């Protein structure tokens, strides 16, 4: 995938917040720019009040980092920026520094299609402070949105209980970028196809679609429109039946279905895009079955999401395929994931790594210090717990305790020796060189399905999901608490 090259034809280094550049300049002025640091990208709460989140966007991150550089036009723009007093915003020496800047960081990340949880790092960046800082905004931009949409798609597909979900939100998406990223993430989350032809071309996603009401309206009658469509596409007829009257529309679809059958072809089905979907889908099913079309599919659309699909399932609606657009590609009920990017360690001149902590009046906003990773433990193929641990400390295989980072009273004892384990952060870049081979998108989608299948159904409930245990290994918990107490003493003038 070459999104940057194909769509933007150049560097995206200026796709960042201004304060990232001012901090980079201040690091450079303070001779701290090359000091090594570690940052973690993570989120604090599941979106949609759900019990899981599905990671997506890593391929975009890879593409961005591989093409990271300040081009001639970028540097010219920065060199012309003025401070409030009219002087250059950035010294020429800093502009020269940026002109020679090459990406040299280590990046470890969860693979796309991985189920992830709050406070656990999804991306870890290690490298010179300036580079790490400049990556904050673009990495958040690239990972936040696709993870959000992949999660929404996964929830919708879970509500559909294995029935195909078609994504066709292009016309309602937030611009070209939003549409492409949403189509890609929706496919990773479980959708079977997209209406977005450019996404099909760029990512290799199956494309699908039938016709709109305008097709029907352009003919003298609905029956004539169906006949003409069947003549054009005899092997892929799904008729939109609610342009005028849904019941009559189903009757006309049946008439054309009989014509197709006389020619050795079969009508695939009908689509209902308005009205009482439970009622009309059940009536349509009765009519199709009585007419000898029990295999004809009924596609439902019209502002669907996981909650409406869950409700229609409860009403025993006769829907076989679900078309979802606006509420999927816009993450309608939660427009942002809210992932953050926090400094967790810096390397002193002595070579020692020093953990860093940000304290807050809200325990939810106290970051996890140090250089850490995440292990997932499985028993008989089912995920039982995730442990966030310090990479330089050994874990007792006979037993350890994991402690919820937001509530120390929630604890779980695990015995690693009795579980199969998976380390979630995988090496992506080493010293700026790509060491990871991106899977094909269909393999990412399959990973997502396998990951979701490894979690108990209670964690995947649409409403009031059961809490999956994620915690800090006890040594990390104690280190974090000691740093919090020390920071509070400094704040109170006690140290």
Q: What would you note in describing this structure?
A:
There is one protein chain. This protein is an alpha/beta fold. Among the domains are: 229 residues, nicotinate phosphoribosyltransferase (Alpha-Beta Barrel), CATH 3.20.140.10; 90 residues, Alpha-Beta Barrel (TIM Barrel). It is built from 16 helices and 21 strands. The strands form four sheets. A seven-stranded antiparallel β-sheet has the order 13-12-1-5-3-19-20, covered by helices on one side. A six-stranded parallel β-sheet has the order 7-6-11-10-9-8. Helix 6 packs across helix 7, helix 6 packs parallel to helix 13 and helix 11 runs parallel beside helix 12. The longest helix has 32 residues. The mean pLDDT is 95.
Please summarize what this structure is.
Among the domains are: 3-150 and 339-372 and 422-468, Alpha-Beta Barrel (nicotinate phosphoribosyltransferase), CATH 3.20.140.10; 209-298, Alpha-Beta Barrel (TIM Barrel), CATH 3.20.20.70. Helix content is 38%, strand content 19%. The protein has helices at 3-8, 18-29, 58-66, 72-79, 92-99, 129-160, 175-188, 197-203, 213-217, 222-232, 246-262, 277-290, 306-314, 326-329, 441-453, 474-491; strands spanning 36-42, 53-54, 106-109, 115-116, 123-128, 165-167, 193-194, 238-240, 269-272, 297-300, 321-324, 340-347, 353-355, 372-379, 382-390, 400-403, 411-414, 420-423, 426-430, 433-434, 470-473.
């Amino acid at each position: 995938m070459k999104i940057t090259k194909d769509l933007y034809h150049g560097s995206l280094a200026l796709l960042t917040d201004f304060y990232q550049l001012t901090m980079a300049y201040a690091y450079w002025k303070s001779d701290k720019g090359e000091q090594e640091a570690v940052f973690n990208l993570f989120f604090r709460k599941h979106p949609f009040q759900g019990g899981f989140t599905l990671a997506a966007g890593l391929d975009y991150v890879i593409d961005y980092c591989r093409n990271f550089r300040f081009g001639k036009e970028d540097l010219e723009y920065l060199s012309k920026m003025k401070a409030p007093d009219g002087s250059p915003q950035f010294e020429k020496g800093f502009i020269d520094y940026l002109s020679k800047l090459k990406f040299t960081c280590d990046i470890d990340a969860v693979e796309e299609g991985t189920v992830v949880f709050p406070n656990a790092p999804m991306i870890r960046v290690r490298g010179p402070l300036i580079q790490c800082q400049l990556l904050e905004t673009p990495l958040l931009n690239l990972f936040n949105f696709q993870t959000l949409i992949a999660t929404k798609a996964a929830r919708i597909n879970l509500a559909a209980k294995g029935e195909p979900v078609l994504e066709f939100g292009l016309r309602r998406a937030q611009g070209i970028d939003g549409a492409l990223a949403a189509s890609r993430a929706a496919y990773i989350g479980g959708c079977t196809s997209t209406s977005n032809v450019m996404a099909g071309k760029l990512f290799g996603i199956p494309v699908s679609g039938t016709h709109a009401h305008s097709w029907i309206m352009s003919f003298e009658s609905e029956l004539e429109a169906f006949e003409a469509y069947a003549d054009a596409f005899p092997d892929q007829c799904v008729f939109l039946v609610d342009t005028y009257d849904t019941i009559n529309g189903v009757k006309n679809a049946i008439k054309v279905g009989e014509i197709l059958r006389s020619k050795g072809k079969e009508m695939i089905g009908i689509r209902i895009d308005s009205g009482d979907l439970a009622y009309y889908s059940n009536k349509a099913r009765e009519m199709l079955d009585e007419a000898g079309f029990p295999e004809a599919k009924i596609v439902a659309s019209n502002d669907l999401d996981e909650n409406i699909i869950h409700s229609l399932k409860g009403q025993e609606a006769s829907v076989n395929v679900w078309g979802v657009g606006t509420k999927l590609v816009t993450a309608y009920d939660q427009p942002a994931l809210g992932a953050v990017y926090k400094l967790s360690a810096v390397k002193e001149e002595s070579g020692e790594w020093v953990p860093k902590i940000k304290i807050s009046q809200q325990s939810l906003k106290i970051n996890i210090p140090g250089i850490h990773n995440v292990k997932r433990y499985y028993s008989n193929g089912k995920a039982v717990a995730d442990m966030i641990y310090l990479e330089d400390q050994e874990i007792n295989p006979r037993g350890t305790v994991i402690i919820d980072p937001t509530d120390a009273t929630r604890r779980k004892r695990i015995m690693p020796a009795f579980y199969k384990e998976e380390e979630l952060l995988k090496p992506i870049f080493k010293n700026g060189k790509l060491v990871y081979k991106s899977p094909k998108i269909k393999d990412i989608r399959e990973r997502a399905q396998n990951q979701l299948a490894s979690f108990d159904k209670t964690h995947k409930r649409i409403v009031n999901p059961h809490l999956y245990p994620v915690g800090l290994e006890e040594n990390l918990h104690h280190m974090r608490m000691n740093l919090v107490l020390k920071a509070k003493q400094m704040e109170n003038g006690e140290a």
